[in-house]
Amino acid sequence: MMTPEDQALALMSLTDRAAIRELVDRYAKVFDDRSFTAMLPTLFVPDSEIQLPPGGHHGLEGMDDFHKDVMRPFGPTQHLFTNTLVDTDDDRATFQANTHVTHTVLKDDSTADDNNLFLAGGVLAGVAVRTSFGWRFQSVTLEAIWRQGDFGPPAQ
User: Fold this and answer.
1) Phi/psi-derived region of residue 65, left when phi > 0, alpha when psi is between -120 and 50, beta in every other case
2) Who's near 4: CB < 8 A, 6+ residues apart?
3) Residues 149, 117: contact at Cβ < 8 Å?
4) H or E element: which one contains 15?
5) How far is CA 36 from CA 78, 88, 90, 107, 131, in A?
6) H-type helices in 34-152, by residue range?
7) Could you tell me the end-to-end alpha-carbon distance of the chain, in angstroms, rounded to an integer?
């Protein structure tokens, strides 16, 4: 039988892992609804590091523009981040999630081309830290494992 202290620790561990999984899910949603300016400050600490296939960025300042540039070639998208694994150690946690993303590529006239899809699968991994506002990303890396389709030159 678990002691009350063990029960409290187990509950905290479950709560922390659920909060970090939600953080990962909210990050996926940000790509699809393009709410970069409003939402990124609620997901990342000010001195965070991010590395996506087109490049990297440090800090919250300009992070919204970095994400906008990454998504510029695409119309509607669907980002699925799943099988999220979380390991907590007090106020720090590591996480890893599988990703499967579908992008509609924009035509030259900036309309979505439903017949031109760019698909990719990968692994999102990083570190989250507990802050006074809840869990936030300290570092995030997205490694593409496979790609299908072509959307032209990488984002600048």
Assistant:
1) alpha
2) none
3) yes
4) helix 4-33
5) 15, 27, 29, 23, 20
6) 36-43, 63-71
7) 58
> pLDDT tens digits for the chain (156 residues)?
889 999 999 999 999 999 999 999 999 999 999 999 999 999 999 999 999 999 999 999 999 999 999 999 999 999 999 999 999 999 999 999 999 999 999 888 888 777 889 999 999 999 999 999 999 999 999 999 999 997 654 444
Q: What is the pTM of this model?
A: 0.91
Cα four-point dihedral sign 15, 20, 25, 29: positive
On whether the CB atoms of residues 87 and 128 are closer than 8 A, the answer is no
**Placement of tokens 């006239």 in the chain:** 109
- Per the CB < 8 A criterion, the answer to whether 128 and 135 are in contact is yes
Question: Which tokens sit at 31?
Answer: 């790509």
* DSSP-assigned letter for residue 149: S
